[in-house]
Recover the amino acids of this structure.
């Protein structure tokens, strides 16, 4: 899928919000500046977040709860995680039962944690647009494509 610019990337996130639900994991992979946070911002805006969602780069986990959004969402940035043991302290396994997890830099942890994730990979094309590819798990088959 081609995403022409930042607006298209956020619009994709808004469309994704219509299909996402608590218990889902959406893994956002790609290089710095590829649009991972733009997808997350579009999704969060569609779920009711007013204002711009900050990147969770320093906080690692940025929680959003009703009434701020329609249902609980954890926006996670694993860029600064060096050891998978560090992620255990985040409590993501427990949190995902009730929340949607948006995980940037999921490749920083073992793939076994994300076996049921909708895995979206962004690449930056030579013209500045973004290409998005998806690995769609069984749980998303009836919700994909958007």
């Amino acid at each position: 899928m081609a995403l022409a610019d930042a607006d298209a990337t956020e619009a994709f996130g808004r469309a994704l919000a219509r299909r996402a639900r608590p218990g889902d994991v959406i893994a956002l992979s790609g290089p710095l500046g590829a649009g991972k946070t733009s997808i997350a911002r579009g999704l969060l805006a569609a779920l009711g977040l007013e204002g711009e969602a900050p990147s969770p780069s320093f906080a690692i986990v940025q929680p959003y709860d009703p009434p701020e959004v329609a249902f609980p969402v954890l926006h996670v940035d694993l860029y600064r995680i060096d050891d998978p043991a560090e992620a255990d302290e985040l409590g993501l396994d427990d949190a995902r039962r009730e929340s949607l997890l948006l995980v940037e830099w999921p490749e920083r942890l073992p793939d076994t944690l994300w076996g049921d994730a909708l895995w979206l990979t962004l690449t930056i094309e030579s013209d500045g647009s973004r290409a998005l590819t998806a690995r769609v798990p069984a749980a998303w088959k009836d919700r994909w494509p958007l």
Observations:
- DSSP finds four helices and seven strands in the chain.
- Residues 6-17 form the longest helix (12 residues).
- Residues 2-100+110-138 form a domain with the Rossmann fold fold (CATH 3.40.50.300).
